[in-house]
Write a structure and sequence with these properties.
The protein is mainly alpha-helical and 151 residues long. 76% of the residues lie in helices and 0% in strands. The chain folds into 2 domains: 1-58; 60-126. Helix 1 crosses helix 2 and helix 2 (25-32) packs across helix 3 (36-58). The protein starts with a helix and ends in a 6-residue tail after the last helix.
């Protein structure tokens, strides 16, 4: 049973890794041989998990990143409103593209939060031991983050 849940998690993470690489949901569904609805659900679930972690790191990251996150969330919401109300398909597509770019930027901040915290701490001359460390949702990055002594 434990093995099955690990395989399911690995499959979810591979789908999300494909999403972060820029593949469309249709391409992800084809690549991993799953339905489009399943691909969308997996990406949304992992994204929601990442955003629930946002509150735990919000106090630890530098003010510039906090402001950037806030502005990107605002732009993303406004772009979504434009996409929902636009009559011209070109305007709608551009608004959706902008919203997606903002979402990917926010996702990348969440994935790289430990690097951001380490850089901020190094600049301030403090230790990162009191900061929240989040594992990357992408398995290959977790292996890189683990030191040679961890297994």
């Amino acid at each position: 049973m434990k093995r099955q849940s690990r395989l399911r998690l690995l499959a979810r993470l591979k789908v999300y890794e494909s999403y972060m690489a820029g593949l469309s949901l249709a391409a992800i569904a084809d690549k991993h041989q799953i339905s489009l609805k399943t691909a969308a659900r997996i990406v949304e679930q992992i994204r929601d998990e990442c955003y629930s972690n946002m509150a735990s790191i919000a106090q630890s990251i530098p003010l510039e990143y906090q402001m950037s996150i806030s502005l990107h969330k605002s732009v993303m919401a406004q772009a979504q409103v434009i996409a929902d109300t636009a009559k011209d398909p070109r305007v709608r597509m551009e608004a959706l593209r902008l919203s997606l770019d903002c979402r990917k930027y926010l996702d990348s901040i969440l994935v790289d939060s430990d690097k951001i915290l380490a850089a901020a701490s190094a600049a301030a001359g403090t230790s990162t031991s009191h900061h929240v460390k989040l594992k990357s949702p992408i398995p290959s990055q977790n292996k890189q983050q683990q030191g040679p002594g961890s297994a």
